[in-house]
Specification:
The complex is a heterodimer of chains A (322) and B (224). Chain A has 322 residues and is mainly α. Chain A is built from twelve helices and no strands. The chains are: A mainly alpha (322), B mainly alpha (224). Chain B: Belongs to the complex I subunit 6 family.
Chain lengths: 322, 224
């Protein structure tokens, strides 16, 4: 009974984190983008600096009519948002935030493979949405999503494999436990490749070809309204949380910090994740969108060779220091 | 390993065994729908259910690593590639009356023969052997990543490497096919004896590959 209660409590905490962190990042994006572009951003909702803007947005989305196009494949169209969102919830369960056993939803033996595998499933949601909408812009968006995933999953996997080699384990808590500060310069290329490939997998700018609004309206999500559309947006922000958390755990040493590692390790994890999330937003307002062919070229001619070189470097250093 | 008859009977199944059987039924059902449905994209999506069901079966057998690799490669990549190919060529919403192949009986024969061979091999290899999944060799779980990796790269290195050579051959073949298609696409520009064949519109008797790009993509897939 105690075990069941423990599991239920952990899942509840993960669920609450899943509901709040994406909203916090969304609100941060509003404000950061506003300041970087020399404007105010939301200022009225909730009184203090528009903190309740996203709550108001949520209420607005819930009030909107849920429209399914007449020509659409009804069931798949309605199922797609759930398929896009749920994988990120599952991934959050496996990300450790602190050194103790209780600081992770569930310890997964092959943690790296679990998170990367499940994250890849989320893209199926976009594909289903793109096809089932019976809209050519949606279909084009779905196509671009698929091409992008195929191009960017490989460098992501290779760099994750590099860290696993360095740590000698594929479990996420195990990797952070094995972390030393000099891994940072050693794995820096892998970290950058992983982060960039992750951005592309989330379809965040500058890799947002699948939803390029000036070309194909909103890609796979063109026909969506109301809550289902909000679920897709939530999936994007949950994806940012997951990607930043994963990069922190794999490459930045998770709960390790210059001081206060005992007891306050989770603060370091959150701090690093927040800084990475800020960079994600920063990149969005800084760089223009890549063209589809540039996108493919970047992955196959730059990121894949870089990640292979990182694996070679990891192997060499690993053999030398043994 | 002990004999099944001595300690474990077929008539007193554990919860895991019941779950294994139920998931197996769902997987089999999804697989049958995959090949019988007349809606092309639905077939690909039912394939997701079937492959995901297989991953759950691996999990129930404590082969955690294999399960996640199954999800990563098949659900995350192969099905995405399949959907990509469908969307690129044709993916009508609703039924495709011409989705049936004339070779269905031959295909059924091959499928049944392959299934029978696989089932026979597994049954003949293990018979009534009982493998304790919880406390197998080395104290760790029998299917944990460490155990899987050790057996793969100690006992089974040769088959593993042979398979990778096979995948390399597939990659080279894909490159050859795509280069050939590109060369044919350029040549008719100068000569007038034959209409230039656009990708996907090539006569099916001449070339089985609908487009070189697809083949190249599947080759990349094979490398993983």
């Amino acid at each position: 009974m105690n075990d069941a209660l423990d599991v239920a409590l952990r899942l509840l905490v993960v669920f609450v984190v899943f509901l709040t962190l994406p909203l916090i990042i969304g609100q941060t994006e509003h404000k950061v983008m506003a300041h970087m572009q020399g404007r105010l951003g939301p200022m009225y909702a909730g009184g203090f600096h528009g903190w309740a803007q996203l709550v108001a947005d949520g209420v607005k989305f819930a009030q909107k009519e849920d429209v399914v196009p007449a020509g659409a494949d009804r069931r798949i169209f309605q199922l797609a948002p759930a398929v896009a969102l749920l994988p990120y919830l599952l991934v959050l369960v496996a990300i450790p935030i602190g050194p103790s056993e209780s600081a992770v939803g569930q310890i997964v033996d092959a943690g790296i493979f679990f998170v990367l595998a499940v994250m890849g499933v989320g893209v199926l949601g976009s594909l289903m949405a793109g096809w089932a909408s019976a809209n050519k812009f949606s279909l084009l968006g779905g196509l671009r999503t698929a091409a992008q995933l195929l191009a960017y999953e490989l460098p992501m996997l290779l760099t994750a494999a590099s860290v696993a080699m360095a740590a000698g384990t594929v479990s996420l808590p195990g990797i952070v436990n094995a972390f030393e500060w000099w891994w940072l310069p050693w794995q820096i290329v892998g970290a950058i490749v992983f982060f960039v490939a992750g951005l592309a997998e989330l379809q965040r700018p500058p890799f947002d070809m699948p939803v390029a609004d000036s070309e194909i309206i909103f890609g796979a999500y063109t026909e969506y309204t109301g809550l289902r559309f909000a679920l897709f947006l939530l999936a994007e922000y949950a994806g940012i949380v997951v990607l930043c958390g994963l990069t922190t755990v794999l490459f930045l040493g998770g709960w390790h910090g210059p001081w206060g590692a005992d007891g306050l390790g989770w603060v370091w994890t959150f701090l690093k994740t927040a800084v990475l999330a800020f960079i994600v937003i920063w990149l969005r307002v800084t760089y223009p969108r890549l063209r589809e062919d540039q996108l493919q070229k970047l992955s196959w001619t730059l990121l894949v060779p870089l990640s292979l070189a990182q694996i070679a470097l990891t192997g060499v250093v690993k053999v030398v220091i043994q | 390993m002990t004999l099944a008859a001595s300690s474990h009977g077929f008539l007193s199944p554990t919860g895991v065994e019941v779950a294994f059987l139920l998931v197996g039924i769902v997987t089999l059902g999804a697989a049958v729908i995959t090949v019988t449905t007349k809606q092309l994209v639905h077939a690909a999506l039912w394939l997701v259910v079937a492959l995901g069901g297989l991953a759950v079966e691996y999990l129930l057998l404590t082969a955690e690593f294999i399960a996640w690799v199954q999800v990563l490669i098949y659900v995350g990549s192969v099905v995405v590639l399949l959907l990509f190919g469908l969307m690129l060529t044709r993916a009508p919403i609703g039924r495709s009356p011409d989705a049936d192949s004339g070779n269905r009986w031959a295909a059924l024969t091959v499928a049944v023969a392959a299934a029978a061979a696989l089932v026979w091999v597994v049954v003949d290899a293990f018979r009534t052997t009982w493998i304790d999944l919880d406390g197998a060799a080395g104290g760790a779980d029998g299917g944990s990543t460490a155990v899987t990796g050790a057996s793969l790269f100690q006992s089974w290195v040769l088959p593993f490497e042979a398979l990778s050579v096979l995948l390399l051959a597939a990659l080279v073949g894909a490159i050859v096919l795509s280069r050939k298609a590109a060369a044919e696409g350029e040549r008719p520009q100068g000569s007038t004896n034959k209409a230039p064949s656009d990708k996907g519109k090539a006569p099916s008797d001449k070339d089985t590959a609908p487009s070189g790009k697809d083949q190249a993509a599947s080759g990349k897939e094979g490398v993983r």
